[in-house]
């Protein structure tokens, strides 16, 4: 660790991993509720479990992004963080706000929570992924602004590189797009239209900038390849991302009441969205092959390569599967979407956060890399979680194909719930694979408690 | 300085193995060509289902404006090619002038296109009018944005040339910009006959 203030990243990473555990536990609860409908009812109904599962994911990834920014910005800018104290204060505010929100979800009915938190003043609740009470949303904006102030000031006084510039654009974009969560028009078409400006333009737009810059940072560190080469690739990737991803929003506008041309625009541009992800895979492997040093942290290298491959498969290939309008006509909102969502989030965002954690945590704990034994355990965690998510995705894809067939294509289409019951076998297999994922996560977390260190060899 | 030695020997030695310009720009160019290629393919598929509509609408397009624009883009590409040839011989001033000529032609394209769009918008045509106009507006506007990006790149290269940033020995950056501009031109050469002329 080159700058003292980089250490503020540590609590962010620890909290992110704790929330990761919560996310998986609630995922297992709702996965079981697919097949045992009244499991934990009425204590934790399906809709609440789902809300906690998705919201915990978003919050822990945001924690991870903030931690990553606090770690890499001082090093890239070659200066201490503008205000480490502010960073720590924001951490506690964000964590407490997230905790209170989850307590709210779990203890009072959602409608009561809405009434308690002033949703009638400015209605923002009730939309998928943006379920947070008004107060939490305002809190997120305040934390994001203060965070951006801290990061921007650091970059302004220090060195400007492609990596910290792209990261900064991504983080600002993240905050600005979130503002559309406050816009909740009565017209349902407009409502959905702008809802995607948060959801899609996050994960298929600005978040990819954050992903690209974190990956580029770690690759420079572990491969020793010239910054110039890595930054050039970063520029190509983010340009391709923005060209395809922004108009690619159209793949959500096929059937919501928007003009028909969105079917053409959305199909063409989103069909090209796998390209930047493929470029990212090539980029990661190319840089590792051209490495000019043998970094002792093999686990971080594995995570970086894994991010390239899994984001291409999950976001790129599984996204392409159902992105063309004529295909999406049948698959819209089925388990195919859930399959894509699981592997894309894991492959792109979970893995990139785990990449930077894998690289930065040993350094923050005062060593170049963890002991060989700890790295082997960490890599077991990598493979268990990654293989599990592949199978979760395959089982959900199976369920989705069956669902599309029974419910939408066959001569005598079945009602939704009847078709769901036919997919029970897939849901059971998904649940067991989910348990395997949890085992992988526990193994991964255990690797943090294995002592010893690896000296830098290069 | 010995122009012949500096200018020709290393270039002919490398040109045999590598495309001119940076590898990254070629990745980008191929991605762009793929995007336009997919767009053209979808145009063809949709046209198959609505041949009469497309044939009825196509004569409404301003072919003269399209033809003038084709000449302008080809002239600009010629200018860019001359500029690269000039810098290979170490002639910075001449190279800069050719780039200036190319940039003027590029702006000419934008002006002609702006008049063309203005006429269409005055006639009340928009993306929702019908499938043909949807493709006409989408394809030409997507290309229009690429002309703007191409011009931004050319202006950057031009400014660097004027500041003496390129030489016979080192003009990698200019070749990179030139490669991108030729892509913009190439796409138009397919787009114009496809949308304006072919029946």
The first-to-last residue Cα distance of chain A is: 16 Å
Secondary structure tally, helices of chain B: 7
Distance between the termini of chain B: 56 Å
Q: Which fold name corresponds to the CATH topology of chain B?
A: Four Helix Bundle (Hemerythrin (Met), subunit A)
> Major sheet of chain A, described briefly?
2 strands, antiparallel
What structural category characterises the helix and strand content of chain A? mainly alpha
Characterise the protein shown here.
- The complex is a heterodimer of chains A (458) and B (199).
- Chain A is built from 16 helices and 2 strands.
- By secondary structure, chain A is mainly alpha-helical.
- Among the domains of chain A are: 1-160; 337-458.
- Chain A has a two-stranded antiparallel ribbon with strand order 1-2.
- The longest helix of chain A has 38 residues, at 372-409.
- Chain B has a single domain (27-197), classed as Cytochrome c oxidase, subunit III, four-helix bundle (Four Helix Bundle (Hemerythrin (Met), subunit A)), CATH 1.20.120.
- Chain B is 81% helix and 0% strand.
- Chain B contains 7 helices and no strands.
- Chain B is elongated and about 55 Å long.
- The A-B interface holds A 232-233, 235-236, 239-240, 243-244, 259-261, 264-265, 267-269, 271-272, 275, 279 and B 22, 24, 27-28, 31, 34-35, 38-39, 42, 46, 127-128, 134-135, 138.
Question: What keyword list fits this structure?
Answer:
heterodimer; A: 458 residues; mainly alpha; two-stranded antiparallel ribbon; 16 helices; 75% helix; 1% strand; B: 199 residues; Four Helix Bundle (Hemerythrin (Met), subunit A); 7 helices; 81% helix; disordered N terminus
Please outline what is shown here.
Chain A has 458 residues and is mainly alpha-helical. In chain A, 75% of the residues lie in helices and 1% in strands. In chain A, strands 1-2 form a two-stranded antiparallel ribbon.
